[in-house]
From TrEMBL:
Keyword entries, A-Z: Cytoplasm, DNA-binding, Phosphoprotein, Transcription, Transcription regulation, Two-component regulatory system
GO BP term (any one): phosphorelay signal transduction system
Residue intervals of the Response regulatory domain: 3-120
Listed GO CC annotations: cytoplasm
InterPro entries reported in the protein's UniProt record: CheY-like_superfamily, Homeodomain-like_sf, HptR, HTH_AraC, Sig_transdc_resp-reg_receiver
Compartments where located: Cytoplasm
The UniProt record lists the keyword Transmembrane helix: no
Species of provenance: Paenibacillus lemnae
4-aspartylphosphate found at: 55
Domain HTH araC/xylS-type: 414-515
One MF term in the entry's GO annotations: DNA-binding transcription factor activity
SMART domains: HTH_ARAC (SM00342), REC (SM00448)
Name the UniProt record assigns to this protein: Response regulator transcription factor
C-alpha cells in the first residue's frame, strides 16, 4: 500500500475526499489529514507518505511552501495540487519540484482517483527499477527476453546506466550501441479509450513489424523500437496499415509519431523527438502521422518571440455587437498562435485569458454556462476544437449584444446609422449633412449618438470606412488604391486614405495586399 496524506484548510473538503475515494482499490492507505502546511510537516517528519494531496491556498504555510519544504527533505514524495482557476499560473511554479498533477477545484472523484492511480503506477514502476539491474545480474536465462525489453524501455525513457552496466547489457543482449541504426515509433489513441486498446495497438504493431526490438506501453502511449532497415515509403505504408486496422476494428483515431534514424546509443534523443512530435498533435489534429519534418520550423529554429495581444479592440467590437470585426480579430489571434506552435498548455493559458475577457460581456444569466465550457477548452485535444468553441461563444455574445443595442437605440440614432450606411461611399458624409437630413441640431445629434453607440460620430464613420476597405480588398485584391479610396468614401484623396488605413491596420494598403493576398 502506498501512503497518502491529505491537506486542506476546509474540513468539509478533507472529510469529503477522505470518505469518497476508494483508497484500498487504488492500492493506497490514507495515513492522516492536516488543515495547514505546518500540521502536514509534523506528519511528514513522523511518517513520510508517498503522496501528498494539498490545497494551494492555506493559512500560514501554503501549498507551494509545503511542496518546497517537503521536496528539500523527501524529494521522492509525489504531490497532487488542488487549485482554483485564478491560482493556475501561481501553481505552475511547483513544476520545478516535479509536480505534474493539478486539479481544478471542485474536482470529481473520478479525476482525483485517476491522478492518484497514475502516481501509484509511476511509483510502482520506480520501485521495479530499483530491483531490475540486480535481478538481471543473476543471469537467469528464462527472464532474458523480459529483461531485454525492460532494459530498452528504461534506457529509452529515463534510466541512466553507468559504464560497467552499459557494457554488461551490451554483451548480454548483443547490442551494437554505436553502429546499430534504429527508429522510435510512438502511438497515441485519440479520444476516450480503455487500457485494453493500448494492447490492441501493441499486438497489431507486432504483427505488422514482425518482432520489433521493443514493443511496450508507456503511460498512455504504445512505444515501438525498430531497426532502421526499411525505406521511408515502406515504413510509412506499414504505419498507415497499423492505423487503418486499429480504426477499422475499434472506430478510434490513432496518431503516430516517428523519429529520425539514429544510433541505438542515441535512442533516448529519438524518443524525445517522438514526444515532441506528439505535442504538436494539438495543432496538426487527430489521426496524424507526425515526423520532425512536420514540426521542423518550431523545433530547429525555435520561437523567435513570445505571444502578445492587446485584447482591447476585440472586446470593444464584441461589446458593440460587431461580429464581423470580432471574427476578423479572433481569426488573426488564432492564426498567430498556430504559427508560434507553443506548448499546448501555454497556448491554452493565453486562450483562457482571452476567453474570460469575452464571456464577461455575455448576459449574466449565461455566465455559469460559459464558465462550464472552460473545462472544454482546458481538456480539448486539438487547436481547431478550441478555436471553434471560442469563435462560437464569441459570435453568440456579439450577436446578443447587437440585438440588445439595436433594441435600445432611439429612432434618431437608427436614422443616423441608416444614413451613414447608405452614404458611406460619399466623401461629403459629415455630421452636419446627416443632421440636416433629419432636421436636428448637430450638437444634439452628436451627444445622443455618442451616448447610445458608445463612440463619436467621426470615429464610427471612419471605422466603418476601414471595414468597407478591408471587405473590398478581400473581394478584389487587384483593386487599385485610388479606386479603393473612392469606394471607401475618401474621394480622390488616396494619400489620406493610405495614412488612415495604415493607422488602422498597421500596414499600408499595398503592404496589406502583399502580406495577406
Amino acid at each position: 500500500m502506498y501512503k497518502v496524506l491529505l491537506v486542506d484548510d476546509e474540513f468539509m473538503i478533507l472529510d469529503g475526499i477522505s470518505s469518497v475515494i476508494e483508497w484500498e482499490v487504488l492500492n493506497t492507505e490514507l495515513i492522516g489529514t492536516a488543515q495547514n502546511g505546518q500540521q502536514a510537516m509534523n506528519i511528514v517528519r513522523q511518517n513520510p507518505p508517498d503522496i501528498i494531496i494539498t490545497d494551494i491556498r492555506m493559512p500560514g504555510m501554503d501549498g507551494l511552501e509545503l511542496v518546497r519544504t517537503v521536496h528539500a527533505i523527501h524529494p521522492d514524495i509525489m504531490f497532487i495540487l488542488l487549485t482554483g482557476y485564478s491560482e493556475f499560473e501561481y501553481a505552475k511554479t511547483a513544476m520545478q519540484y516535479g509536480v505534474k498533477h493539478y486539479l481544478l477545484k471542485p474536482c470529481s472523484e473520478e479525476s482525483l482517483s485517476e491522478a492518484i492511480g497514475e502516481l501509484v503506477e509511476s511509483r510502482m514502476i520506480e520501485d521495479d527499477k530499483e530491483a531490475f539491474v540486480q535481478s538481471v545480474r543473476y543471469g537467469l536465462e528464462r527472464i532474458k527476453p523480459y529483461a531485454k525489453e525492460q532494459f530498452l524501455k528504461e534506457f529509452l525513457t529515463n534510466k541512466t546506466y553507468g559504464t560497467e552496466e552499459w557494457h554488461y547489457f551490451g554483451e548480454l543482449f548483443g547490442f551494437q550501441f554505436q553502429s546499430q541504426q534504429v527508429r522510435v515509433l510512438l502511438f497515441q489513441i485519440d479520444g476516450e479509450h480503455e487500457y485494453e486498446h493500448l494492447f490492441a495497438v501493441k499486438n497489431i504493431t507486432e504483427d505488422v513489424f514482425r518482432n520489433p526490438m521493443l514493443s511496450s506501453t508507456v503511460s498512455k502511449h504504445v512505444l515501438i523500437l525498430i531497426e532502421d532497415t526499411l525505406t521511408e515509403p515502406e515504413l510509412f505504408e506499414r504505419i498507415q496499415s497499423i492505423r487503418s486496422i486499429f480504426t477499422k476494428y475499434y472506430n478510434l483515431d490513432l496518431t503516430a509519431a516517428l523519429s529520425d534514424s539514429g544510433e541505438l546509443a542515441q535512442v533516448r534523443r529519438l524518443y524525445k523527438q517522438t514526444i515532441d512530435c506528439l505535442s504538436h498533435q494539438f495543432y496538426l489534429g487527430k489521426g496524424s502521422l507526425i515526423t520532425r519534418r512536420d514540426i521542423s520550423n518550431s523545433l530547429d529554429q525555435g520561437r523567435q518571440e513570445d505571444f502578445s495581444y492587446d485584447e482591447e479592440k476585440l472586446i470593444m467590437v464584441i461589446k458593440a455587437g460587431h461580429w464581423d470585426d470580432a471574427e476578423r480579430e479572433l481569426t488573426q489571434v488564432f492564426q498567430r498562435l498556430s504559427e508560434l506552435r507553443m506548448d499546448s498548455a501555454e497556448t491554452k493559458s493565453y486562450i483562457i485569458q482571452l476567453f474570460m475577457g469575452i464571456i464577461r460581456l455575455g448576459s449574466s444569466d449565461r455566465i455559469a454556462e460559459y464558465l462550464g465550457r472552460l473545462t472544454t477548452v482546458i481538456e480539448s485535444s486539438t487547436f481547431q476544437s478550441v478555436q471553434e468553441l471560442v469563435m462560437s461563444i464569441s459570435r453568440d455574445i456579439a450577436l446578443e449584444r447587437f440585438e440588445r443595442t439595436r433594441s435600445q437605440h432611439s429612432q434618431l440614432v437608427q436614422s443616423v446609422v441608416q444614413i451613414v450606411h447608405q452614404r458611406l461611399h460619399d466623401e461629403q458624409l459629415t455630421l452636419q449633412m446627416v443632421s440636416n437630413e433629419i432636421y436636428m441640431n448637430p450638437d444634439y445629434v452628436s451627444k445622443v449618438f455618442k451616448r447610445e453607440i458608445g463612440e463619436k460620430f467621426t470615429n464610427y464613420v471612419m471605422r466603418l470606412r476601414m471595414e468597407r476597405a478591408l471587405e473590398l480588398l478581400e473581394q478584389d485584391n487587384e483593386i487599385r488604391i485610388s479606386h479603393l479610396a473612392e469606394m471607401a468614401g475618401f474621394g480622390g484623396n488616396s494619400p489620406y486614405f493610405s495614412k488612415v488605413f495604415k493607422k488602422h491596420t498597421g500596414l499600408s494598403p499595398s503592404e496589406y495586399k502583399q502580406q495577406y493576398f
